[in-house]
Design a protein that fits this description.
The protein is built from 10 helices and 12 strands. The strands form 3 sheets. It has a 5-stranded antiparallel beta sheet. It has a 4-stranded antiparallel beta sheet with strand order 4-7-5-6. A 3-stranded parallel beta sheet has the order 2-1-3, covered by helices on one side. The longest helix has 18 residues.
């Protein structure tokens, strides 16, 4: 059935450029499937957004990443208007974006996460707040924006922090970078990510050739199944719907243990993105993935 679809992209978060690429790819794929597609680069002008929502589309594909688009605020506007949209609703989106709150829910669900705490910015940059190595990260950013790793022997990083007055400090987990996409009620596949240098930061995620994607991840069968299970449990613990992606670390320096880092409620849909890659691994084309997402768009109003 032909649908009228508005794709929201861009925005003004630190992940704007990635969102523009995601939105363009989604709009193209949905148009090729015969839908009436419009794409809108979201600004802070709410009346302009409301004008884009009139006449009302059958569904909104929310391809925004980061704050304001992924944290429940855009979802709240669409709920108030009664317009179905892709991905998670208001509460799940807000919980997932707030890393400390999400960690509490994961702990209640028995999902292991790195030990950590929230400290004030001045305290974080005045002295080491936990034994090295540890990780410093913003409370509510995605795509590894602002993440800093303080290793053995490192001095404190310079205080050029632009991500608010609080910092999440976590124990650094050695081992391997793992990610799992969840689509509805099933976890798709497990990918191991091996950056060719440094850690899996923003550039490694979005620059071709900087990271090797191993799919399926070369893990023992029991570990592979555990990664799928943990990711689906995390999706459910937050109350996510549609598509999400869990990022984990697999500490293989001992008997092997997973730690959940975070859940992304609106993962990337770029040519280098992990959810389309895992879907393709299972025989689901990019167009089919986008189609499924708009067919499962919901409004929680």
């Amino acid at each position: 059935m032909k649908l009228s679809i508005l794709v929201l992209k861009g925005g003004w978060s630190a992940e704007r450029e990635v969102s523009l690429v995601s939105g363009a790819a989604v709009a193209k794929a949905l148009a090729e499937r015969g839908h009436d597609v419009r794409a809108y680069d979201v600004t802070r002008d709410i009346p302009a957004l409301l004008a884009q929502l009139s006449p009302r589309p059958d569904a909104v594909f929310n391809a925004l990443h980061g704050r304001y688009g992924e944290d429940g605020r855009m979802q709240a506007i669409l709920d108030i208007m009664g317009i179905p949209y892709t991905h998670s609703g208001v509460l799940a989106s807000a919980l997932a974006m707030n890393k400390p709150m999400a960690k509490r829910l994961f702990a209640d669900a028995g999902i292991p996460c790195p030990e950590g705490r929230v400290v004030g910015r001045k305290e974080a940059f005045a002295a080491h707040t936990m034994p090295r190595p540890y990780v410093m990260k913003p409370l509510d950013e995605g795509s590894s924006v602002g993440v800093r790793i303080v290793r053995e022997g490192d001095n404190l990083p310079p205080e050029d922090w632009t991500f608010g007055e609080e910092v999440l400090v976590e124990r650094f987990i050695p081992g391997r970078e793992i990610t799992v996409a969840v689509m509805g009620d099933r976890a798709l596949a497990v990918t191991e990510l091996r950056p060719r240098s440094g850690f899996y930061d923003y550039d490694s995620k979005y620059t071709s050739g900087l990271t090797d994607h191993l799919i399926p991840a070369p893990l023992p069968k029991t570990a592979y199944e555990e990664a799928l299970d943990l990711s689906l449990r995390a999706h459910r613990a937050l109350g996510c719907r549609g598509v999400s992606r869990a990022d984990l670390r697999y500490d293989d320096t001992g008997p092997g243990r997973f730690y959940l880092l975070e859940v992304n409620t609106q993962p990337g849909m770029t040519p280098l993105s992990l959810v389309p890659e895992q879907a393709a691994h299972l025989g689901i084309s990019f167009g089919e993935l986008c189609q499924w997402m708009v067919e499962n768009a919901r409004c929680e109003a």
